[in-house]
Specification:
With 226 residues, the chain is α/β, with parallel strands linked by helices. The strands form three sheets. The protein has a seven-stranded mixed beta sheet, sandwiched between helices. The chain has a two-stranded antiparallel ribbon with strand order 2-3. The two termini are 24 Å apart. The structure holds cytidine-5'-triphosphate and magnesium ion. The site of cytidine-5'-triphosphate has 21 residues, from strand 1 and helix 2.
Length: 226
């Protein structure tokens, strides 16, 4: 089977401190957004990409892939969850949907394949994730340690995240109506009492967030297995 992936790319990249949204910065010869979109479409189980952009975005139109027939452009919203909902509302008649951050250009195809395989055997879907490595501290507002959290069963949530379309759309709409703060798709499903599976993925699937991440992403892109 082949799937559609929604790529939220309507953020401003505040933490990157650059002169444009981070998805339009160039690494290894192309913008981060081009790396992300082309890498997704190169996977045999991806047939269509919905890229969610700021309504006033005038960078995307100048990219060589802007007119590709496998890409649909949709206007995003103020929060990431609003952007994902805009993408979901533009879809119909599909059972499952993937959501993947524009800012994660280094996703490995084997990890994506594994996610697709595991999630389809589950009722509510699954996400890529990786285990926490450092010792985890809980602190108070004065940055004083109050507690050392056990690392057992503690994971970083990555993307892609893969869910039945109707379930994800309903959960995100309900969370929006209840003004629950949702930072990834899984949290909407969790909030709606669904059980989301974790699929262990590579730590190289970083979300390019701060200036130093650019060099790291470039390294991973250049050293990717063929
Ligand atoms: N995103 C989006 N719509 C928003 C906010 C974020 O589509 N209203 C997208 C971003 O473009 C990014 C992904 O969601 O691809 C993950 O968000 P994040 O890494 O936080 O990106 P930004 O919000 O752009 O960065 P920052 O938080 O530093 O401003
Ligand atoms: Mg953000």
């Amino acid at each position: 089977p082949q799937y559609t992936v929604i790529v939220p790319a309507a953020g401003i990249g505040q933490r990157m401190l650059a002169d444009r949204p981070k998805q339009y910065l160039t690494i290894a010869g192309k913008t981060i957004l081009e790396h992300t979109l082309e890498n997704l479409y190169a996977h045999p189980q991806i047939k269509h990409v919905i890229v969610v952009l700021n309504a006033k975005d005038d960078y995307f139109a100048s990219l060589p892939l802007a007119s590709k027939s496998w890409i649909t452009r949709v206007d995003g919203g103020n929060e990431r969850a609003d952007s994902v909902l805009a993408g979901l509302d533009s879809m119909n008649n599909e059972k499952w949907v993937l959501v993947h951050d524009a800012a994660r250009p280094c996703l490995d195809h084997d990890d994506l394949s594994k996610l697709l395989l595991v999630a389809q055997r589950s009722a509510y879907g699954a996400i890529l994730a990786c285990r926490v490595r450092d010792t985890m501290k809980r602190a108070n507002d004065l940055q004083e340690i109050t507690h050392t959290e056990s690392r057992d069963n503690l994971w970083h949530a990555l993307t892609p995240q893969f869910f039945p379309l109707v379930q994800l759309r309903d959960a995100l709409h309900k969370a929006a109506r209840s003004q629950v703060k949702i930072t990834d798709e899984a949290s909407a499903i969790e909030w709606a009492q669904g059980t989301v599976h974790l699929v262990e993925g590579r730590g190289s699937n970083i979300k390019v967030t701060q200036p130093e991440d650019l060099q790291l992403a470039e390294f991973y892109l250049q050293h990717k297995a063929a």
